[in-house]
């Protein structure tokens, strides 16, 4: 039997996480979400008027994905980002394939699209912006006000993670998901920091 393409397997895993979150929250009716990123590797997982947006990309091959550290995010590694809006809450899933096996990474939604350097993606997207920059105050830099997607890869370098926040994007929207070299810290003065920016996927949230 021929195996399914990686992105269909990843979409299936993401959909299971999204469905589990939706069932846990027992929402009433889903509002529509924004369009997917304008990339050849992006699209709606279900088609039609789906409220799920999915972006898939391969590092060093697709414009949507940039790897700044080719040791920790090798050329040819793949990423899938899915956004799902339901009953005023937003769930974002991240699926990665082909990274360093058995390693912990940080990941967050950032304010701007990817660029030639990691700094191009700007700061973390915050629903309630911290008036102090850079934001390292746990009152603002936390997984309820930001979208945190930390993960640990398995022995094949693959992982799937998800984050649900009790709000949805309105006028201001995130532009990317950035993968960091280290897990996210939570202590005051360091909250939200996660080491170097080593990979980035532009996403039209």
Describe this protein's structure.
- This protein has 205 residues and is mostly beta strands.
- The chain has one domain (6-202): Superoxide dismutase, copper/zinc binding domain (Immunoglobulin-like, Sandwich).
- It has one helix at residues 6-25; strands at residues 42-44, 52-58, 65-67, 78-86, 89-97, 104-110, 151-152, 159-165, 176-180, 197-202.
- The strands form 2 sheets. It has a 5-stranded antiparallel β-sheet, with helices on one face. A 5-stranded antiparallel β-sheet has the order 3-10-9-6-7, with no helix packed on it.
- It is globular.
- It starts with 5 loop residues before the first helix and ends with a strand.
Short description:
The protein is mainly β. The chain has a single domain, classed as Superoxide dismutase, copper/zinc binding domain (Immunoglobulin-like, Sandwich), CATH 2.60.40.
Gross morphology: globular
CATH fourth-tier homologous superfamily:
Superoxide dismutase, copper/zinc binding domain
Radius of gyration in whole Å, from Cα? 16 Å
Strand order of the largest sheet: 1-2-4-5-8
The name of the CATH architecture is Sandwich
Q: Please state the oligomeric state of the protein chains shown.
A: single chain
């Amino acid at each position: 039997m021929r195996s399914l393409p990686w992105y269909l397997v990843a979409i299936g895993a993401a959909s299971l996480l999204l469905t589990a979150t939706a069932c846990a929250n027992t929402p009433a009716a889903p509002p529509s979400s924004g369009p997917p990123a304008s990339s050849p590797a992006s699209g709606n997982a279900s088609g039609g008027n789906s409220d799920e947006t999915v972006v898939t990309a391969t590092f060093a091959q697709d414009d949507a994905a940039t790897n700044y550290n080719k040791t920790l995010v090798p050329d040819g590694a793949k990423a899938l980002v899915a956004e799902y809006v339901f009953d005023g809450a937003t769930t974002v899933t991240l699926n990665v394939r082909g990274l360093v096996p058995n390693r912990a990474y940080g990941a967050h939604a950032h304010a701007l699209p990817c660029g030639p350097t990691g700094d191009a993606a700007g700061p973390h997207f915050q629903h309630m912006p911290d008036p102090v920059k850079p934001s390292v105050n746990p009152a603002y830099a936390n997984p309820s006000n930001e979208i945190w997607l930390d993960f640990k890869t398995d022995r094949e370098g693959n992982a799937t993670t998800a984050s649900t926040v009790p709000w949805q994007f309105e006028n201001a929207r995130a532009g990317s998901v950035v993968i960091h070299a280290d897990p996210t810290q939570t202590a005051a003065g360091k909250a939200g920091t996660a080491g170097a920016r080593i990979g980035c996927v532009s996403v039209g949230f």
